[in-house]
Each structure stands twice: as structure tokens, then as C-alpha cells.
Structure prediction request, 577 residues.
Amino acid sequence: MSQDSSGVVVDRAKSQWSDLWKKEDYWAIWIGFFLLLVGMYYVFSGREELATQNAPYVATMQAEMQKTSAFKTIEWHEASAAAKKVQAVNLPGVKSLLGYLKTPARWQSSPLEALVLSKEEAARRNEAVKPAIDKAKAAEASALQTARSAQDAAAAAMYKDDQLNKAAAEAIAKWQKAKGETSNAKKKEVKPFNLIPTLIGSGIVLGLLCTIGAIFMGFNAVKFFLAFQGVFWLCVLANLLGNQVTMRKYGLNAEIWGIIIGMVVANTVGTPKWLKYGAQVEYYIKIGLVLLGATVLFHKIMAIGIPGIFVAWVVTPIVLVCTYIFGQKVLKIPSKTLNITISADMSVCGTSAAIATAAACRAKKEELTVSLGLSMVFTAIMMVVMPLVIRALHMPEVLGGAWIGGTVDATGAVAAAGAFVGPKAMQVAATVKMIQNVLIGVTAFCVAVYFSTKVEAQAGEKVGAMEIWHRFPKFVLGFLAASIFFSWLSTSIGSDMARILVDNGTNKVAGSLRGWFFVLAFISIGLTTNFRELAKYFKGGKPVILYVCGQSFNILLTLLMAWIMFYKVFPEITAKI
Prediction:
């Protein structure tokens, strides 16, 4: 390197440019963007076809609403149900793509059930549930006939008789309930499948894609690709175990099984050198986080407005800062990087925030593993316990959903816990968690600034913007860019097409891909973790105490803020949810 200042500047500039194709953070962005573009190609290629299918249903609903505002007619409900079936995921290309991204199916007694289901076995199962379906259909038909008679009576009175309108609305509601029971009964029907060929195909394609980036980062192509296949099939095993019915019920999902499987291998027979070559934790999780950005949509955030923003954006930083101070001043945790990583993991949004924060503060791999392990254990517990507490206390669904969304760490666990409480709870919980996810980038930036200027800076040393930029995890830019782009896209194409193309199109593709990369990362964490190396971080139980105390504070403050915002300050917004 040249010694004069201009030479240094030039060399640094060259280094910054070469980072674009040599550094892991940027390859996470490029691969994430490429996968999103592929998904968009398949989804938006059918845009006109889907718009044409949806148009008559929308016209029918509008016409029915003009007939009467007293209640939603049978024809309106039928058109609405038909419109909901107009989704990009039903396009042949998208359906095929999602077919290759499927994880093993749910199973009860034999793991083979999750991989292969023969035509004969599918027919046997469908025959077994046929009586229940037929019974539900008969009840639905009877309810429809009653609703039709009540609606005709209301129509004959020109929808001016309040009693007849009320009777029609109640009859239609009973028909809708019966229709829902038929739908639930039909969900038990199955189609024959064989996931083995698609899993092989997915492993090869994702392996080749990751290998391209690995080559530019200096890896041996053949070694990396073969190691990736090994990690991928361990990932399949984790998904297989995570989709066992009982395991799933108690929150032992694929991510948890990923770490368990990896740790068992690493701490018994030992991770083979060839396999460890493909256990690239941050590479996979960063790609997953870029894909996560595509599902964080600003218009969804605004759907529950200011109350949700207060719960997520006010409580979260308070809890993060207080937990970090508690860890330093009270528990006196020697490692500030471990302290801040656990604090961010617990307060923001779990593993995603932990990865971004660990990168920003340059935490050790073992410290990140400790944080992720704590997060997963407590998430599994909370996703089961919190819905039970909410129902036992007869807590309103909106309040319960906001409480879950602001405290349970993983996005999938939030949706599952919310669904157990009710549909409104699931909607609010998922939205609050989405609002929290926005803070991933903000947290990473603030941590990068704090550790650059306060923790690691020498006395009297002035830290410039370039040092902060150098520390800042660049993959977060991909997360933010994806979030901004898909938020703009959703608002620009209108609510109907956003539902069809984004909510039930690109979001589904991005979500399936993200799931694979997250489990790949957790398998890799386990494969590269040694219990002896972790032991010193748990000395005195301080990380556990920090997490428990911080999460307890988080639970209480979130519940208080949710109650104040949704029921005292903005009750009119709550009434519309």
C-alpha cells in the first residue's frame, strides 16, 4: 500500500468496491435479491390472468353492497370466498416453485409419512374422513337453505324491516359458520406426494447458488458444495422432526431441532472437517434475513396504527437499554458483546436481531450461540404458556395478541401462539412482531455506533463515519431495501392485487426460502459449537438470569403499554380491528 494519504484513500476505495463481490454480507444481499427476483418473475407473469379472474367477484361484491347496507348477502359472501381463492400461489409456475421448497409434511407415528404418501394410502385416509365431510356438507346445505329463505324475506320487504334484516344476518352467519366447519373437515383430506425428488432438487439448486458466492469469497467450490449437501440433509432431518405433530404442538420446531442435531454431532462423534466446511452460520442467516425483509410491509404496520407502533417501538428500546444496563451494573457480566446480544435477542425479535447485533458489536460465535440457545428455549415455553394464561384470564383477543407479538421472539412462534388465542389475536400479534422486525436495522446501526464510539474507542480518539460504516452489518441494507421495495410495490398495485400477488405470492416464496436458510444456519451453529467452549459463558448462570429478568420486565411493560394504547388511548382503533 502507498504511504501517502492519497494512496491510502485510493486503496481503501478499491477495497470497498471489491467487498461487493468478496464479502459475505454482500453475497447475502445478491443471493437474497436473486431469489426474490425469481419469485417475482413467476408471480407477476400471471398478473393479468389473476386480475381478470378477480374482477367479476369484486364487481359482484360492490353490486351486493349497493343493494343493502343492512347485512352482507349470500351472494356477497360467495363472491368474497371465490375472490380469496384468486392467489398467485395457485399459478402453475408458482405452485411448482413452492413445491420444490416444501419441507417434510406433518406426521404422527412414522417419519416416512412426511416424505412419501402413496395413492392407496391417500385414498384410505380420505375414505376415513369422508363421513365427517359429508355430514358437514349436509349441515352447510341446510344452513344455506335457511339463510336463503331469510334473505328472500328481507329482500321482499325491500330491506326496510329491521327484524327481517336481523334474522337474515343471523341465518347467514350460521351458514358461514357451517361452511367453515366444512372447510375444516376438508383440510383432513390428503393428496399423494413424493417429496424426495423435490428435496434433492432443492438441495442441488440452493447448493449451487451458495457455492457461486462461496467461490468469490475464497472457498473451494467442490468442497463447499459437497459440505452444503451434508448440512442441507441434516436440515431436512431437523424439519422432519420439527413437523412431528407432538413436537410441533410443544414448540419444538425445525430451528430448535437444527441446533440440537448439530450439537449432538459436534459433541459426540465430532463434526467431520469436510462437513464443517459448509457450516457457514452467518452466510445462511444473512440470506434469510434479506428474504425476511420482503415480508416486512409498511402498510401492514399501519393497519393497527399508533397503538401497535407504541407497543413495538417504545417498549422495545426501553427494555433493550434497561436489560443491557442491568447486565453491566447489577450482574456485572464481563463481556459487553454477550450482554448486548442477549439484550437485543430478548427485546427486539429473537434470533434475527441477535445475528444483526452480534455482527454490529463483533460478538464471538460462542456468545451468539448462547443468545440463540436461550432465545429458542424460552420461545418454546412462552408460545405454549402465554396463550394458556391469556385464555385463563379471559383477556381480550386484541390485548392478548399485542402482548404475544411484543414478547414472544420468533415470528413463526408468534403466529402459532396468536392463532391458539383466536384470529384477531393472530392478526395483531403478527403485525406487532412485523413492526418490531423493522427495528433490526435500527438496532444494528445504534449498536455499531455505540461500540465504535464508546466501548472500543481509545480515550480521546475520534471515531469517523467510515469506522462506523465498516462495522455496520451490510446485509441489513438488503433487509431494509427489500422491505422498502415490497412495501412500495404493495401500495402501488392496489389492495386487491397486493393480496393476490404479494401476500399470497412473493411473501409465500420468500417465507419458504427464509425457512430453509434459517434452519441451515441453526444446523451450522450446532455443528460448530463445543459444550466446553460454551461452559465459561454460563458461569454463575448470569446469561440465564439476564434473559429471565429482561424478559420478565418485557412481559410486564408490554402488557401495560398494550392495555394503555389499545384500550385507554386509542379504543376507536381497537374497535375496528
User: Anything to note?
Assistant: The radius of gyration is 26 Å. The first strand starts at residue 116 and ends at 117.
